[in-house]
Design a protein that fits this description.
Blueprint lengths: L12 H4 L12 H7 L28 E4 L1 E2 L8 E2 L1 H13 L2 E4 L1 H5 L11 E8 L8 E4 L2 E4 L4 H11 L8 E4 L24 H11 L2 E4 L12 H18 L7 E3 L14 E5 L6 E5 L2 E7 L15 E5 L4 H11 L10
Parallel strand pairs: 1-5, 1-14, 2-3, 4-5, 5-8, 8-9, 10-13, 13-14
Antiparallel strand pairs: 6-7, 11-12
Helix pairs in contact: 3-5
Bound molecules: zinc ion (ZN).
Zinc ion binds next to loops.
Length: 335
């Protein structure tokens, strides 16, 4: 039964604007500019990044960024240009952020973030070829430098301390090649037999593998059994690519919860062919919107509802600026 549904993330649109239209709060330039003799005409134009060596703040917020496709020459709701993605990486880096995964956040493992710096989580949804595409060069597979992964690897070469950490929330039965980064040459030349190799490569590199259902089901619209089948079978797909891999995170398609909410993180499905029961047990559930996430040290941190910041327009930069001006960002202490 090959039920394929188009990826329509538009439902999330209504929720997107909520709480995102924050002013850029570009430092206190307004006040000092008025007192001084107009010494900086660019004040208010670009926010100045504070020195990364900030005081530790383990109760601060952690930005969890959400990406879909990296394509085109104009940003849209669910696509971001390669140039904008690179600019996001630069922005995070220069502000003293270093990447971790959701799994590391759950474990309060900030060992990849030097003291005085801050963690950021890059999450990539929907497993499109634009995130991870191979090109064949003389019979050898190379990662396309124009994809999210290609750009990431290139960025890391010139930015010390930028590790392969982040979270890929994947489908393995989505339409239009949204199946472990491409299942048909019709979609950006990607071959079905490359899928598991890509997923395994990500895990081997230190990226986290995350469930996003089989074909992007609107979980609120289906009975409990269908919800569990979607989630469990996608986890089985990940297990086929990386045997024994413990999936700890799920991202809700469209940010929609199943009617029976706990089924988002815990449930099971019995394969009628084999009679075998497959269980899933996730620790983290990712929402679609909501701003910077609470620290895992915060008493109100709820791993079953981790908000994210969508890569839309200038929202990421605005949120990073706000975290600095409000001094609410998580800062790693001395180790
Ligand atoms: Zn999605």
């Amino acid at each position: 039964m090959d039920r394929r549904y188009p990826i329509l993330c538009l439902v999330a649109l209504a929720a997107c604007s909520k709480g995102e239209a924050t002013p850029s709060n570009t430092t206190a330039a307004g006040a000092s500019g008025a007192a001084g003799a107009a010494r900086d005409s660019s004040a208010g134009n670009v926010a100045v990044a504070p020195a990364p060596a900030a005081a530790p703040n383990q109760a601060g917020r952690i930005p969890v960024l959400e990406y879909h496709q990296i394509v085109g020459d104009k940003n849209t709701l669910y696509t971001r240009t390669a140039a904008s993605f690179k600019a996001d990486l630069e922005e995070a880096y220069k502000r003293g952020y270093r990447p971790i995964s959701i799994a590391q956040m759950l474990d309060k493992n900030f060992s990849d973030v030097p003291a005085g710096m801050s963690p950021v989580v890059f999450v990539f949804d929907d497993a499109s070829p634009s995130q991870f595409r191979y090109v064949e060069q003389n019979g050898k597979l190379e990662i396309d430098p124009a994809t999210a992964i290609g750009i990431w690897l290139d960025f890391a070469k010139s930015h010390p301390g930028w590790k392969n950490r982040g979270t890929f929330c994947m489908l393995n039965g989505g339409a239009a090649g949204h199946n472990f980064f491409g299942d048909n040459p019709k979609y950006e030349g990607q071959k079905k037999e490359w899928r598991f190799q890509k997923v395994k490569w990500l895990a081997d590199q230190g990226f986290e593998l995350c469930d996003h259902t089989l074909w992007h089901m609107m979980l609120n619209k289906y009975p409990d059994a269908a919800v569990q089948e979607q989630i469990a079978r996608n986890q089985m797909g990940i297990d086929s690519a990386v045997p024994g891999y413990k999936v700890r995170t799920i991202a809700l398609p469209y940010g929609l919860w199943p009617k029976n909410r706990p089924l988002a993180w815990h449930g099971s499905w019995t394969d009628p062919k084999t009679g075998q029961t497959h269980t899933y047990n996730f620790e983290a559930v990712l929402e679609v919107t909501g701003g910077p996430a609470r620290s895992p040290y915060d008493k109100e941190f709820d791993a079953h509802s981790i908000p994210r910041i969508e890569a839309i327009g200038d929202d990421i930069r605005k949120q990073l600026i706000k975290l600095d001006t409000t001094k609410t960002r998580f800062v790693v202490g001395a180790k």
